[in-house]
Amino acid sequence: MKESKGLWFPDKDKFMVSQYAQGYTQLGTLEKALTYVTNFRTAIDGGAFIGLFSLEMAKQFDVVLAFEPGSITRECLRKNTDNTRNIFIYDRALGEKFERASQDQDDRWEGNTGGRYLVPGNDFEVIPLDCLGLNNIDFIKLDIEGYELFALRGAQKTIERCKPVIVCEEKPRIYERQGVMKGQIGNFLSSLGYKQVSKIKGDIIYCP
C-alpha cells in the first residue's frame, strides 16, 4: 500500500492516486445525490474501492455497508475506514444471483486498480443484495464496472421495499463489456417506478 493525502491506495495504482492527488474525487456526484435523500439510515456502497465514498457516506448515514471483493483494494478500504465505526465491509461482489467470480484488468488501464471488472472465476462470492433481507436502505451507490444492471436485478425486492435513491455509473465502453446495452438500466429502474433526475458525467441519479 501507499499513502496519498491521508488515504491508502494499492501499490500498483497510478491512475486513481494521481486523480485523488489532483483533487478529482467524484464526490460532487455523491453530494448531488444526497440532496434527494430524505432518510439517512443505511447506505450501500457497491464497489467501495478504497473507501472514499464510504467515508463520506458514513458522515451522513447511520450505517454504511461497503462491498469490495478485490483483496488488495479491500485491504486499503479496511485501513482507510479502520476508525470509522459505522462502516461494515463485505468481501463479496453484488450481482443478480449467487455465483463465484474473479476480477480482470483492462490492459489499457493497467495502472487503474479501480477499473477491475468481474469475470468468471473462483476468487470470491457474488451475492444478490436481496439475500440480506434489509429493510432500511435509503441510498444505493453502484460503481462496479459494468455489473450495475445485474446488481440492481439482485436487489429488486430491496428496491421495491425501501425505495432508495440510486446512483449508477453508466459508461457504454464499460457496461457493453458485460453484455449490457444502452438504456437497459434506465428501463429496468423505470419498471420499478424510478426516473432519472440527474446525470453527472458517467453517473446517473435515479429517484422513485
UniProtKB/TrEMBL annotation:
Transmembrane segments: none annotated. Residues 52-195 form the Methyltransferase FkbM domain. InterPro entries: FkbM_mtfrase (IPR006342), SAM-dependent_MTase (IPR052514), SAM-dependent_MTases_sf (IPR029063). This is Methyltransferase FkbM domain-containing protein. It comes from marine sediment metagenome.
